[in-house]
Specification:
Elements (H helix, E strand, L loop, with lengths): L1 H7 L4 H19 L27 H5 L7 H22 L1 H7 L2 H24 L3 H4 L14 E4 L10 E4 L6 E6 L11 E8 L4 E6 L6
Parallel strand pairs: 3-5
Antiparallel strand pairs: 1-2, 1-4, 2-3, 4-5
Amino acid sequence: MGEFLTSVLMYPTVIFSGLMILVLMFWMVAMLGAIDIEILDIDADFDGDADLDADGGGGLIDTFGFAGMPISIAISTIILFGWIVCLVLNAYAMPSVSEVLPKGASRVVVFLASAVFAVVLAAVALRPVRRVFTGHKAVSKHALTGRNCRITSMTVTAEQGQGEIEDGGAGIVAQLRCAAFNTLELHSRAIVIGYDAEQDAFTIEPLDEPDA
């Protein structure tokens, strides 16, 4: 156990160890529902808001197969593999590299090599599950106007509500709002009539509202 802790806290592994702590904290908070796993994503789903859009730039993202993956998942996986690879290289490759390069330079080489291997391994590991996040081509949030949706929360008001918007695929989970008095409840059907950028939520109105 002592040797393991020494390896974990040894440079450059300690860099990945620190990042791993942040990743674990992030996912613990996400599991409690305090934050959305897409909070790190920068305009790449819909209008480019939740994922790494395969059509939004290609380049290295597309080359390594991360296009369409939520940024939080991609980064977490890269950091995990970086930590593991760095531990292995520190234990088995560092002695050999140190015989050729100065100690400081050898540590930099190990860190860079770990980062490169981490990206490649993460890309391979995530490729099988990529289809889960890229089952449909990303569409504009405003393009979802007119789509039907199913309520997944107990109620929908002007301040809160959640549902699943039909997109021809697995559906899009989104925040919903309805300012007018309504009887929407779990499993009710509604139609999207607009998008509120300030709340990052879709405005809806009931379908087949029962007669008073």
